[in-house]
Amino acid sequence: MSQATGTAYESDRYVGKVAAVTGVASGMGRCIALRLASEGATVFGMDINAEGLHQVAAEAAALAGAGGTITTRVTDIAEPAQCRAAIAECVDQHGRLDVLGNIAAVSWMKNTADVTTEDWRQMFAINVDGTYFMCQAALPHILASEGNIINIASNAAFMGCAYLVPYCATKGAVVQMTRALATEFVKEPIRINAIAPGGTDTPMNRDYQLADNTDYKLLKRSMAFRPLDKPEHVAALFAFLASAEAANIHGAIINADSGMTAT
Amino acid sequence: MNRYTNKVALLTGVASGIGRATARRLAAEGACVFGLDIDQTGLAETEAEITSAGQQMSGRVTDIRSVQECRAAAEACVATYGGIDVLGNIAGIANQRHVHQVTEEDWDLMNDINLKGVFFLTQAALPHIIEREGNIINIASNAGLMGQAYTVPYCATKGAVVNMTKALAMEFVKHPIRINAIAPGGVDTSLTANFKVLEDADYSLMARYTGARPSTQPEQIASLFAFLASEEAQNIHGSIVSSDGGLTAE
Ligand SMILES: NC(=O)c1ccc[n+]([C@@H]2O[C@H](COP(=O)([O-])OP(=O)(O)OC[C@H]3O[C@@H](n4cnc5c(N)ncnc54)[C@H](O)[C@@H]3O)[C@@H](O)[C@H]2O)c1
Ligand SMILES: NC(=O)c1ccc[n+]([C@@H]2O[C@H](COP(=O)([O-])OP(=O)(O)OC[C@H]3O[C@@H](n4cnc5c(N)ncnc54)[C@H](O)[C@@H]3O)[C@@H](O)[C@H]2O)c1
Q1: Is the separation of the CB atoms in A33 and A23 below 8 Å?
Q2: Atom 40 of ligand 2 has which residue's CA nearest to it?
Q3: C-alpha B72 – ligand 2 centre gap (Å)
Q4: I want to staple B176 with a disulfide (CB 3.0 to 4.6 A). Which of A152, A256, B133, B194 is the partner?
Q5: pLDDT at A18
């Protein structure tokens, strides 16, 4: 790798590496899968959306670049048994696992009074349980390859966002889960980090519907000064952070939010 | 890929450690490095090494404690290379003292280098950074994020660098520039090699800031710097990026 010799950035950082990535049918997950494949990775892409999985696999087949590929598996990460089955299938197919990217999540805005038990459990099942049980299933393989895990948190983990109470709670959980896992495995040669994006131009962000009778004054800090970020930039950070260039970064939560959480 | 072709990087502390590794890395990726340090010998070594490899660097002996020297250095960089795309505030000092041992001179020296120098070089460089739509990276420390026994003045300066970075990021959030900090953990440099642990230190207090992983090489911080200051990191602004092998996760 280039970091030892101080030579220029290369675009083949993932040749020979296997990356299991969730949420690849859309938004950031899709960009991350394509970016890693363009740098040579064998990507095992998971999502609940079969149609979107087809599309990203087709896009990958048309990629120039370092010869990576994307194979896909329809997976509902809210089911721990499916997380385990998906990781087992990835390792069966590709023989190893170097990088796990937990990208899939859901979000919506509601008044607290309108959040049902079912809403709450569903969001935790995807955003928190899905991330945790993917980590648990992947860890033996990540230990074997001396690989690393990246979880996608959110600026919402660091801000108290009105009408996003369950989402803030799930993303705070992802941050603390990342740090706790990092400490538990600090003596092993693996890395576990999180990226906390800000508002990013993806279907999740575009499809937000405001809660009934939203008080805009309460959204002040969520109104970013800079335009929405591009998911490609989250992918660029992911590709750096999961590479050997970032060998000293462990237990870090990297804010990539165009200044949202600086205040 | 050469992310720094046609880019000018003004870096402090390039005579040693993280600054030298960063100068090497950016120059290897095509940057023109305008390197500052108070240590003339080390500065000349870095410059000779980089230019003899056919890369671009110009060194200038500068004491960043002097506001006048900071301003003159920024102007000299612009005069030499035509502008400033990246400012790296890397120079810094650290030491251990009991609180009662800290003299006014100790306090002023650490503040003048680690904090005042960072602010006034930033102030001098900002108009040029704005002109080129560039970015600034300050080297903070894990000590800016944790309370660490026996390094109270150092922690104070690095905590100040952390929040200065965020405040600058907010003041310039409507400008197309980026301002971030890196918070390293233990790095093998002359700073750590010369670090004298107090003879009567309570090791149970020091254990709280001693990492479980071995200290890292300055090249690791340089590779993060090279990513963060590049166009790849366009959405990272006002961030404090830890690179500490898990030290601050606990
Ligand atoms: N877009 C933003 O503004 C923003 C900001 C901060 C953080 N994030 C986070 O970034 C990540 C990616 O979000 P995005 O913006 O790309 O959203 P997106 O909606 O475009 O993509 C999310 C993907 O997750 C998949 N998914 C949902 N439930 C699933 C399940 N049960 N099993 C498997 N896959 C499932 C969806 O099908 C979709 O393809 C998420 O963790 C999100 O919380 C997004
Ligand atoms: N080494 C570590 O473990 C560690 C950990 C966290 C943060 N840091 C920070 O990283 C930065 C670089 O430190 P390093 O470890 O490379 O140390 P180093 O001692 O190897 O290099 C520091 C450089 O700063 C220069 N310098 C000192 N005073 C100056 C002045 N008044 N004007 C101009 N230059 C001056 C020195 O001459 C030296 O070349 C510092 O800000 C330090 O606080 C270091």
Answers
A1: no
A2: B92
A3: 21
A4: B133
A5: 98
Q: Can you give the residue ranges of every domain in chain B?
A: 8-242
Assess whether the C-beta atom of B17 lies below 6 angstroms from ligand 2. yes
A143: in domain: yes
Domain with A245 in it: 18-262
Burial label, B22 (beta-carbon count in 10 A; 0-12, 13-18, 19+): buried
Q: Which residues on chain B are in Cβ contact (under 8 Å) with A252?
A: 241-244, 248-249
Closest CA to A242 of A150, A152, A180, A175: A150
Interface with A, mutate which of B235, B236, B240, B243 (most A CBs under 10 A):
B235
Supply the pTM of this predicted model: 0.95
State the CATH number of the domain containing residue A140.
3.40.50.720
In the prediction, which pLDDT does A11 show?
Answer: 79
CA A167 to chain centroid, in Å, comes to: 15
Q: Looking at the CA of B222, name the nearest ligand.
A: 2
- For chain B, what percent of residues have pLDDT higher than 70? 100
A204, A206, A226: residue to mutate for ligand 1 pocket, most atoms within 8 A of CB: A204
* Number of domains, chain A: 1
Residue A13 lies in a domain: no
Residues 6+ apart with CB under 8 A from B159: B143, B144, B145
pLDDT reading at B197 higher than 60: yes
Q: What is the CATH number of domain B8-242?
A: 3.40.50.720
Cα dihedral A81, A23, A150, A156 sign? negative
* Domain-embedded: residue A51: yes
Q: What is the mean pLDDT of residues B30-46?
A: 98
CA distance B14 to B23: 6
The complex's ipTM works out to 0.93
Give A9 to chain B, closest Cα distance, Å: 5
Average pLDDT over residues B135-155: 98
Residues in B touching A3 (Cβ below 8 Å): 219-220, 223
Q: Which residue has the higher pLDDT, A63 or B127?
A: B127
Which of B4, B81, B154, B209 does the annotation list as catalytic? Answer: B154
Does residue A9 lie in a domain region?
no
B221: pLDDT strictly greater than 90? yes
B241 lies within 8 A of chain A by CB: yes
Q: What is the mean pLDDT of each run of 10 residues along chain A (263 residues)?
A: 32 95 98 96 98 96 85 98 98 98 98 98 98 98 98 98 98 98 98 98 94 95 94 98 98 98 96
B227 chain-A contacts, CB cut-off 8 A = 237, 240, 245
Measure A114 CA to nearest chain B CA, in Å. 34
